[in-house]
Amino acid sequence: MRYLTFALAKGRLAEQTMELLEAVGITCMEMKEKTRKLIFVNEEQKLKFFLAKASDVPTYVEYGVADIGVVGKDTLLEEKRNLYEVLNLGFGTCKMAVAGPTSMKEKLKQGHSLQVATKYPAIATDYFYHKKQQTVEIIKLNGSVELAPIVGLSDVIVDIVETGKTLKENGLTVLEEITPISARMVVNRVSMKIEHERIKTLIDEIRQQL
Ligand code: PRP
Predict the structure, then answer these.
(1) Ligand 1: does its nearest atom lie under 6 Å from the Cβ of 53?
(2) Residue 111: half-sphere exposure toward Cβ, Cα within 13 Å
């Protein structure tokens, strides 16, 4: 039997995924240890697990080095890889939103040409250009995006809002909601055919747990 390989977004998402997999009888003792390793194997069940940066998970799955991936919907929308999205796992819930100082709410509504800072340029482009038909300037950042409107780099941001604490503590608010986000299971298109029975059984078992 060949290995079935999972690419997981390292951190909290991977931990929650392993808890869910344990509930359907899939375990990996090695992963519970405090380690910097990136690949883990369960020889008895012929399973492998990669821990990857979230934004790289769809890439590992599209290229087929991993059969299955678990990653946030935000990453899937941003990376636009050719994959099957098979399950909404229901955890890692948050929302993608346009945020900024309340003074921007009217300008945003009136369709002004604003500067938008974001870690998600594809999502921001889809939202403003395709959904709202609004011309904006998108400024790509890599983190702590809330800083941008405070220091005058941008008018608003497009970012993940989970508890809303980061926005609140920086004097910003949600101005428009773009889409709800949660963890999704994705499958490589070829793996879905060649490992159909194994993957289908797994999806069915997980679905029953949700
Ligand atoms: C994320 C996101 C927000 C924050 C939202 O950032 O980009 O900044 O969490 O969470 P909250 O609504 O619960 O405050 P992350 O912690 O991943 O760091 P980063 O901005 O440096 O990427």
Answers:
(1) no
(2) 6
